[in-house]
Amino acid sequence: MRYFISDYSQGAHPDVLKALVETNFEHTDGYGLDVYCDNAASIIKSLIGKPDANIHFLVGGTPANVITIAATLKPYECVIAPHTSHIYMHETGAVEATGHKIYALDTEDGKLRPDMIQCVLDEFEDEHMTLPKLVYISNTTELGTIYKKSELEALSKFCKEKGLYLYLDGARLGSALTSPENDISIKDIANLVDAFYIGGTKNGTLFGEALIVLNDEINDHFRFYIKQNLGMLAKGRLLGVQFEALLKGGENSLLFKIAAHENNLAEKLRNGISDLGYEFLSESCTNQIFPILPKEKIAKLREEFLFEDWSSVDDPSKFAVRFVTGWGTTDDDINALLEALK
Ligand SMILES: Cc1ncc(COP(=O)(O)O)c(C=O)c1O
Predict the structure, then answer these.
(1) Is residue 288 lining ligand 1, measured as CB closer than 6 Å?
(2) Which tens digit of pLDDT belongs to each residue from 184-216?
(3) For 296-334, what is each residue's pLDDT tens digit?
(4) Full DSSP string of 259-322
(5) Which of 8, 58, 91 for a ligand 1 pocket mutation test, highest count of atoms within 8 Å of Cβ?
(6) Pick from 53, 57, 224, 320: most CB atoms within 10 A?
(7) What is the pLDDT of residue 125?
């Protein structure tokens, strides 16, 4: 079997694992108050050019989203997010379970624009409704698309004008930043949003996300929210060790090398599939691609490959599937899949 099911189906990148093994016998403080978390936080602060940023290491994407939103909103405030977003579609209502409604907007490409958000603001008017206060976006989006700099600037400006917080889910931020179509730097992101995270789980760590809180209002008693929402790891140094290994070297770090590898192979696959005459559900330029294939072909592929069914399409004889490349995907995997698709 060859695996295109996700970018977290293998363990850690060998360099990350090596760092874990090399530090294994050391004793450190717990709960993220260790030297490795400090080192990783310093690297992130210099990478984003914000010495005063607040950095928190969390075990996964769902906890990062739930905890950030819980820490940001008052009980009656709600979230605006794309209909395709992870918090709306794939987190079992974890955000809503903390009491915050998610107002989901239909989008073709997984992205939000100011005019879409304005339509929501026009509808929500008094204390008989929840109050929109946080805009959730992801980069890459769940459809593999990315925000251009002008789009993120427009969203940021709009959110500031309307008194909304802007939070960016970066589960696949590495892939977004190394996409050939990307024109945003991580420093730009840090200047434009109130909080965002750098995903490790889908970018070579065993687990873990590095949350960066830029707005001090959100950071107020943040560690209390982490603990109360079950997100505080006693052996927190496991996160620090991994993120230090992933990020040391800053812009030349392993994070970006892994992400570029994932994107390059996904691009090769996308071009090959396109040359075979197949269409795609979205214009992804990152490490998840969504070709639309005949159902018979999909059944045949399943004999050799693992991948996800994504969504139905207008033509009932076809279905959109998702292929994802990870740190361990090889050229050979791509060639085998393209061969089988012929
Ligand atoms: C954009 C995005 N956010 C958050 C998550 C959730 O991460 P986890 O499964 O680590 O909770 C995922 C997982 O696929 C994701 O794609």
Answers:
(1) no
(2) 999 999 999 999 999 999 999 999 999 999 999
(3) 999 999 999 999 999 999 999 999 999 999 999 999 999
(4) HHHHHHHHHHHHHHHHHTT-EESS---SSEE-EEEEHHHHHHHTTTEE-EEEEE-SSTTEEEEE
(5) 91
(6) 57
(7) 79
Overall residue count recorded for the chain in this entry: 342
In a mutational test of the pocket of ligand 1, which residue from 7, 59, 90, 175 has the highest number of ligand atoms less than 8 Å from its CB? 90
Q: For residue 309, how far is its CA from the centre of ligand 1 (angstroms)?
A: 17
**Contact (Cβ atoms closer than 8 angstroms) between residue 269 and residue 43:** no
The rounded Å distance from CA 325 to ligand 1 centre is: 15
Q: Which atom of ligand 1 is nearest to the CA of 59?
A: 10
User: Residue 260 is encoded by which pair of tokens?
Assistant: 């570029």
Yes or no: say if 144 and 290 are a contact pair by the CB < 8 Å rule.
yes
